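To close the chapter, one final illustration. This time we ask the reader to focus less on the individual chains and more on the assembly as a whole: which components sit near each other, and how the overall shape emerges from the parts.
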Amino acid sequence: MKSKTITLDEIKRVISSLDLISAIEQGFIDYSSGRATVPPIGELLMDKGEVHIKYGYIQGDDYYVIKIASAFYDNPKIGLPSSNGMMLLFNQHTGETECILLDEGYLTDTRTAIAGAIAAKYLAPENVERIGMVGTGTQARMQLQYLKKVVDCSDVLVWGRGKEKLSKYKTDMKQHGFDIETTTDISGILKNCNLIVAATPAHEPLLRATDLQSGVHITAMGSDTPEKQELESGILEQADLVVTDSIEQCMERGEIYKAIKTGSITKEKVVELGNIIAGKAEGRTSDDQITVADLTGVAVQDIKIAEAVFEN
Amino acid sequence: MKSKTITLDEIKRVISSLDLISAIEQGFIDYSSGRATVPPIGELLMDKGEVHIKYGYIQGDDYYVIKIASAFYDNPKIGLPSSNGMMLLFNQHTGETECILLDEGYLTDTRTAIAGAIAAKYLAPENVERIGMVGTGTQARMQLQYLKKVVDCSDVLVWGRGKEKLSKYKTDMKQHGFDIETTTDISGILKNCNLIVAATPAHEPLLRATDLQSGVHITAMGSDTPEKQELESGILEQADLVVTDSIEQCMERGEIYKAIKTGSITKEKVVELGNIIAGKAEGRTSDDQITVADLTGVAVQDIKIAEAVFEN
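The assembled structure is written out below.
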């Protein structure tokens, strides 16, 4: 078994040279066209942490991918990151191990950020005047870095609960060429920005329907369980277009799950991102529409990013 | 992440020095006492092969284990083994990767053979006069090698369909110190041996109830799906004791599944091996009893063998 182990440092060295947006767009297309086989997620719950196993393959591809991702919430107390993980790439024709990507969760963060960029690419209004970022964590940073590749706007208003984290975010993201203004008033985000990304683990809605303006696109990245919610369901109700990465998955978790449960929208209103990318469904058709993308993450993103890193 | 990758060659170098029988006995005890968490098997079916993901942990242990095992049946045509796989060992307290065992399926074969030895240790009659081996494949070879550690008998009658394979088996196993006689008449096995191991992928019963003698122990290793069967259900009906590694699992696959389905036995007749090892249930109580062990393989065996290899 001549399998190759690739470390996080090696992954980080190669990743900036890859066209991951195209790769993951293709993943969404494959998913929405039914070419992806993605079995239910495996789960192991322990006293101190939990592990999720996501796996699958795209018919006609050369590989299948198994991703192991763990979260151990007490780790920071002993100086370890709470998230960890690896991706394993195997040959779809022989089962041979092609590569072990010891990415420690970095590729999951990256493919999540790229999904946000893809949503913005297809759904943001033509002129993004100001980006509104809800949250100051890892994902709120990475989202901005990948948005830069698809949106010509460096003016950012960022919301957070704590002034210290906001100030740190501002300092850090300035180094990436962004003009950052900070706020602790969430209503300012919807009132002043026309491309908004929500990237928090909130369990109660942050963005309010009463603050909604026309001509905005909102991507909700944070809510990936049945409990989490970042947007009031009224926002989805008022939206002209509600998009998701996986209709099957958003029936069970995320903003769309909440909005359908409360009767704010019906399943028929929801369009899959892969079908918009493929031109099979309509995306934004005018600059004054309100669009919402609710992304909970699908294994095709893992498959495509692992393949792209391995092949390069 | 300072994880260690261990190759098949390194595994083979260390394995003979390990007390794997004790380790896996403890695994069966942990399983039967409810200390093991073993979620449903993950499965990926592709055009040319299939992959199974088995995973779990034992409460109070230091690790959790994820095993990936594949079978690609056309591989031999291009000079590759059909089976492949690896075991991944993680820290149960932090989620850190401790070790990647690139065993290519060897540890699965080994833990399966050891389970057969454990069944013989607790269930074989005191004086094993002749071992009867049904099958001539990899598992039929490994079973014999591990039986040597628990049973003082080197006299073996082996059954197979093809004379060439029988002759090869005889030559190979002689080198391990066994006296091998071969036969293509299956009835000879039950008529002449008092410790029998069936290790074939048969889909129709091989061993017949009419040939059954008193004072025999039979371990059925081969049947691990709802379709496979090596023993006529009448054998389980006549047996004084029917043992399995997992009562839950044998309700859905293997010899016991078949025998219950045809009404030959009821679930109440079945005893778990871990409870016999722990002294909580009775094993063989006299030399003229007929005992049957039906083993379909449980993830605790993978957990225990991976831990033992890693710790050494």
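The two ends of chain A are 20 Å apart (CA to CA). Chain A has a mean pLDDT of 95. With these observations in hand, you are ready for the problems at the end of the chapter.
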